[in-house]
Design brief:
Number of strands of chain A: 6
Number of helices of chain A: 4
CATH class of chain A: Mainly Alpha
Largest interface: A-B, 38 and 39 residues
CATH topology of chain A: Arc Repressor Mutant, subunit A
Oligomer: homodimer
Helix content of chain A: 25-40%
Distance between the termini of chain A: 36 Å
Shape of chain A: globular
Structural class of chain A: alpha+beta
DNA sequence: GTAACTGCAAAATATTTGCATCCTT
DNA sequence: AAGGATGCAAATATTTTGCAGTTAC
């Protein structure tokens, strides 16, 4: 895993630093999305808040992670699967937010269906967020 | 229109005040979504920022408006069409955010297709936001 | 008249920026 | 050695809270 992380950073021409490795580990360790606060907590507040902001920002720019828009507007970040180029994100999978535990996951296996828009609208990105109860919190 | 607004407020047991009427007018006047800042500007900063927050909050609680999650995580509010009960929002139409002009509209005529989720996930609300170029900004 | 709403001040949060220092390559 | 990354301090921006005065009903 160590090596994979280093490769990922190298691939994107980012220098390998402790904070970046640690934060990437977090993302790889769990199958969900993380909020800024989660990251601070799970790194034991080891890194400066600003560093976390900047790290996330550079991961975003490089197409390593993407944000998940939620109805309650808490910003969550998740790993991009693959074909996200620099500056372009192509996540066409559905995101699921659990109303109970707050966990946010990418349902990679669920593809967003193509939508026919009214004349004149040119779609570029489609986001689909479903909220409800996740497997663990299911009544 | 005046009467309709008053009815709407009465229906939700909210007292009829200037700020509420004015803000509702804004929502009714345009077919799109509004960010907090838009509302401040378009009311000519007539109302205190805090009042706007609280007004939006109470409209949310009553199911008069709902938030739209956008890819850039800016909070937008839009009128709920009808069957949003207190605490429950049932918007099943697509939202479109223009990358150029920032306008957000509800595409009421475009219905969100039903999505089959993996076993164990129980959906309650589905949000679908498409971004791109709108009719006006079309290249 | 009473309860609810507003505006102001201020607190609490969240995010961004500048700069000197330190680390990676 | 050079450029980039970090941490700290501080500037901004955003949202929430308390409270006294005002308004709706």
């Amino acid at each position: 895993m160590e090596a994979a992380i280093q490769d990922l950073l190298k691939k994107h021409r980012l220098s390998i630093t402790e904070s970046r490795v640690k934060i990437l580990e977090l993302f790889l360790a769990q199958q969900g999305a993380l909020a800024h606060g989660d990251i601070e907590k799970r790194t034991g507040e080891k890194f400066d808040r600003v560093t976390v902001y900047r790290t996330l920002q550079s991961f975003m720019n490089k197409g390593i992670i993407h944000t998940i828009p939620t109805a309650d507007n808490s910003i969550r970040y998740a790993l991009c699967k693959d074909n996200c180029a620099e500056g372009h994100h192509h996540d066409n999978h559905v995101h699921f937010v659990c109303d109970d535990c707050g966990n946010t996951v990418c349902l990679d296996e669920v593809t967003i269906p193509t939508i026919k828009l009214p004349l004149g609208f040119t779609p570029k990105q489609v986001e689909m967020v479903i909220s409800g109860k996740c497997r663990e919190c299911k009544g």
